[in-house]
Amino acid sequence: MSDADVPADGGGADVPADxxxxxxxxxxxxxxxxxxxxxTRAWVAAVFLLPALVLLGALVVYPIGFSVYRSLFDASGxxxxxxxxxxxxxxxxxxxxxxxxxxxxxxVAPTVSTALGLxxxxxxxxxxxxxxxxxVVFMPMAISMLAAGIIFRLVYDQDPQRxxxxxxxxxxxxxxxxxxxxPGAKPRPNADLRPSGGGSFTTASVVRAxxxxxxxxxxxxxxxxxxxxxxxxAGPRPGLVTGTAWLDFTRGGGGRPNVIDPGERxxxxxxxxxxxxxxxxxxxxxxxxxxxxxxxxxxxxxxxxLPGADFAAAYNGVDWLGxxxxxxxxxxxxxxxxxxxxxxxxxxxxxxxxxxxLEAARVDGADEWQVFRRITVPLLAPVLVVVLxxxxxxxxxxxxxxxxIAPGSSLRSANVLALQLFQSSFxxxxxxxxxxxxxxxLLLLVLPVMYVNLRRLRKERRR
Amino acid sequence: xxxxxxxxxxxxxxxGRRVAGRAVQRGGRGPLAGRLAARAGSGAVxxxxxxxxxxxxxxSVGLLLSSLRSPAQIAESGWWQVFARPAQITFDNYGxxxxxxxxxxxxxxxxxxxxxxTVLVVVIGSLAGYAFAWMDFPGRDGWFMVVVGLLxxxxxVALIPVAKLFGAVGLFETTAGVxxxxxxxxLPFAVFLLRxxxxxxxxxxLEAARLDGAGExxxFTRVVMPLGGxxxxxxxxxxxxxxxxDMLIALIFADSGHPPITVALQQExxxxxxxxDVLAPGAFLSMVVxxxxxxxxxxxxxxxVMAGAVK
Lengths: 463, 311
What we know:
Number of strands of chain A: 9
Distance between the termini of chain A: 31 Å
Oligomer: heterodimer
CATH class of the largest domain in chain A: Mainly Alpha
Distance between the termini of chain B: 23 Å
CATH class of the largest domain in chain B: Mainly Alpha
Number of strands of chain B: 0
Pfam family, one (chain A): BPD_transp_1
Number of domains of chain A: 2
Protein name (chain A): ABC transporter permease
CATH topology of the largest domain in chain A: MetI-like fold
Shape of chain A: elongated
Structural class of chain A: alpha+beta
CATH superfamily of the largest domain in chain B: MetI-like
Radius of gyration of chain B: 25 Å
Membrane topology (chain A): Multi-pass membrane protein
Strand content of chain A: 5-15%
Number of helices of chain B: 17
Order of helices and strands of chain B: HHHHHHHHHHHHHHHHH
Order of helices and strands of chain A: HHHHHHHEEEEEEEEHEHHHHHH
Structural class of chain B: mainly alpha
Strand content of chain B: under 5%
Radius of gyration of chain A: 35 Å
InterPro entries (chain A): MetI-like, MetI-like_sf, UgpAE/MalFG_permease
CATH architecture of the largest domain in chain A: Orthogonal Bundle
Family (chain A): Belongs to the binding-protein-dependent transport system permease family.
CATH architecture of the largest domain in chain B: Orthogonal Bundle
CATH superfamily of the largest domain in chain A: MetI-like
């Protein structure tokens, strides 16, 4: 929230002219509103104004002129290039990315923040603890974009063990698509199992009645068998083909290959299929002791297959800060910071909406949605516009969040104008001409708001 | 707790609830069905708002809990594991940070930038605001228009020129330079806000003081400044938080050997991943002052924010 962000709306003090005039009527009459109290001499006024005007002149007004001038010269500052830097802004790939991202930012971030602010403001009016809610949502406004950036770097951490966004995402994903029980596991090399495409393994020999199938596996992640039971050799059972899947590895050594030694652990939850002529004819899941049973009628003469889904690598979530999603992800963190701002301003506007109007509509049979859509929103329109414009000006200059959240590898994809300006002026690709052109371009984009502010001020004066 | 609502809701909440309640009874449905529907509806609203609030809190809670775990635990599992194993909580990270001279020094630098930048904006802004509100001089309205026009000028436009200017006069990479930059860019809003507020002071008050023989300076310090208290407080809080939280200007203009906290932490972010035990408590430390100021002065902060945007 730069101080410079704020569209003047006659803000905080819309009354002065009238108040001054009202008081003045008793004193000096309306002709000269807000006359100096007792005809101050001009040099006194100059002394009061001097510090402000000197600082503004040297550090705000002069720089505007210098930037415009500097933007017409090349990187060295000696060669006049006219509007060349502006041309380069629209042809350079990196800057075009920045422009495109800025458009996305300016359209999406203010809209989403304002929409959420509106929803929150309307809904909090209906609960007693609305104030506490507002405090929670408004609080991020008080912290720095740097701190917010670090907070969201953590939220978006790729590793589902650390980043909460991916932890939730993977959790939801695995609820609908069960994760593989033993990612990365494979048969013991000299076992009867052979790779059969798609990560699956199939026995080389066919199943014979009364002889249990052995499925010895290795390379199981230690964490996946931490609580596993001792594996049990399946005995023959009438009418069924039985077998055991286990981790054929004895801790501390001494285990025999292809034999279920004491201490070797069962692999529960594996899908076991009987395959005949390429088609699955029966399927079972291994029990806690590693055993499984298939109907003999179907399985005898078939081969046993462990499908690839048993061993697929764990789903690792979304690459939030990868090139594709980095901008939406950072916009998410911005909305987290600024929805509270929109909410507070809209709530203030809402307090000014005449209750009788809403009630009259309800009496006339309008439901809550219609009241919201047809009355509340139109009455709030001026506030909504001010909030949107304020946020747009703010977003135009977005820098800190992008600089902090985007990892080095995605920085180019997340580029925005203010970041490019920083890089061009003080960072890696030094070209002050180009940097100045971007600065002037940003200034041009806010000129309409400046114009509206001044026109409103003049109108207030005339009133 | 009541201040956000007090400053903002102005009793709208209570009125809204009353109206909503009455409206339901008058609705087309039968009284019982209507009441049931209203209860279910407000139940849904409550559940929704609770979920949103938890969602909004989660990122900060994540940072806080991460800052309270050892580096090994941070590397191994998520902060939410703390709920299962509260014994993991340790203040070691903060201990290390507090004994780290560089971090503590950066907090001092931040304060050394923020306090003067806030005081200067308030003082210089008040002087100019008073002149614009109550003094008569040629071109007053024109000058004020210029100041209002500067409200929306992005800081970006001044970065290169001011860096050169400061370089020429020896202010580049100094605390004084950062303070001056923040003061200059805080001034348009300060002058705008204070001029409008001062102009509301009743003329009789100023004239009475004048008749008692008060000079312009005395009038300013004894009448205008005290009466302008609320606006000055809003402006001060606003500017304080803005400067404390700034990174961009400090990144360019601050002494890189003694950077403020935001820049010091930003340098750490480069190696994000293996230094969360430094970043998380550091970020929290940098948030302590703004959060205390925010909670202590919510009303002023909110009205400062609103002064900038809507009536």
